[in-house]
Amino acid sequence: MENSIFNEMESSVASYCRSFPALFSKASGSEIWDVEGVRRLDFLAGAGALNYGHNHPALTAALVEYISKDGIAMSLDLHTEAKAAFLSTFAETAMSRCELDHVVQFTGPTGTNAVEAAMKIARKVTGRTTIAAFTNGFHGMTLGALAATGNAAHRRGAGLPLPGGALLPYDGYLGPDVDTTAYFEALLCDPSSGFDRPAAVIVECVQGEGGLNVARASWLRNLSRICRAHGVLLIVDDIQAGCGRSGGFFSFERADIVPDIVTLSKSLSGSGLPMSIVLIRRDLDQWEPGEHNGTFRGNNLAFVTARAALELFWRDDTFELEIARKAKRVHEALAVIAEDHPGVFAGQKGIGMMQGLLCVDAERAAAICGAAYERGLIIERAGPRDEVLKVFAPLTTPLAQLDEGLAILAEAVDVTSGQSCRNVA
To answer: Is the peptide bond preceding residue 109 cis, with omega within 30 degrees of 0?
Structure first.
């Protein structure tokens, strides 16, 4: 098979393959190979859908065993053993971390489906229509999610107006010394502000696509307090920052808040299989049977690997401590790169294992990613102008491979800037 088949048959909407045009054939952990046998490190990780790497042996073994016994693959919302096992394990591991008294709604199959369901139930419960969101936020590509997404190019793709959303300034958007939640509160308290009380606020505790912007814990607590005081539901979109990517299983744990609604997808299945859910505060679960559904909400293969991942990684704090150690290593390496190239970078971004470097211009960021790819590292960009280099290595990446990838990144920066960087390992 040649790449020409994709040029002939596939829509021009495809994007990642333009930056990484190899014909890939197999992958394991943080490594991926093309048909010519060229090995690369994958620091894209399915845009956060492969937190545990490609084909983790424990997850693959659980899946193969289930399939070999004619386990049910697709079940709509029927009760199955695989779903029951996932729900029990999810309650015992993830939900118990924050004492969430929430029910689980299975939506399918992607994150934007979960966001749409979260918005719908918020509107149904409150009787209000507006969903407030934040600058540089990204929540998906369906119409409701786009109305809460800041990126102009994504919004234009809708082809029609996007009602039902109201954008607010995210933490740091007006400068580090401005608490933008005070602005939100002022709008709600002023009867002449022209700002209608929303049904809900949807927020990413760490904005992945928006440029690795991190909301301060104090800002999140203020936002939660304001929402509670004014009867506005708080939705945390944990689709990209959850499942360990920002440190804990949930990105909001560090702020010690309990959202009314949480959306999860991407790495929830543990293996890259499509799966998304909405966690709804128990008293808010006011759906009528079948009022929101989706054909592929019963992906039992994903339930099997999701349960296996929870059992393997989230029964205690061992994996969380491992993430913290690797995050420290990434932060230190990026600090060296940034300090050695002050004219190239304007600072570091992110938290946990979703970190990056803010380039002074998008063209430089693109050149660095291209040079890294040529040297064996797949790494993408984020931010409003694609100016942020986004290090998204799988959380399971061995330290030796993590150092290898960071060294390749440093070399790519050196090559494109014409100056040398210190050893980052």
So the answer is: yes
Cβ proximity of 244 and 237 under 8 Å: no
Task: Convert the pLDDT of each residue in 298-352 to its tens digit.
Answer: 999 999 999 999 999 999 999 999 999 999 999 999 999 999 999 999 999 999 9
What is the pairing mode between strands 102-107 and 377-378?
A: unpaired
287/294 Cα distance (integer angstroms): 14
HSE-up (13 A, CA, CB side) for residue 43: 29
Query: Could you tell me which residues come within 8 angstroms of residue 79 by beta carbon, excluding any fewer than 6 positions away?
Result: none
- Residue carrying the six token digits 């936002």: 223
Could you tell me which of 266, 245, 209 has the C-alpha nearest to residue 396?
245
For the chain, domains (ranges, CATH) are 4-56+317-417 (3.90.1150.10), 60-313 (3.40.640.10)
Partnered with residue 202 across adjacent β-strands are 235
| C-beta neighbour count of 351 within 10 angstroms | 20
Q: How far is residue 103's CA from residue 261's CA, in Å, rounded to a whole number?
A: 10
Token pair listed for 116: 């749409």
Question: Please, is 366 exposed, middle or buried when counting C-beta atoms within 10 Å of its C-beta (0-12, 13-18, 19+)?
Answer: middle
Q: How far is CA 300 from CA 67, 150, 229, 425, in A?
A: 10, 34, 40, 41
Rounded-to-integer distance, Cα 157 and Cα 138, Å: 14
CB neighbours of residue 334 within 10 Å: 24
- For 41-90, write each residue's pLDDT tens digit: 999 999 999 999 999 999 999 999 999 999 999 999 999 999 999 999 99
Instruction: Tell how far CA 418 is from the center of its chain.
Output: 34
Q: How many CB atoms lie within 10 A of CB 158?
A: 14
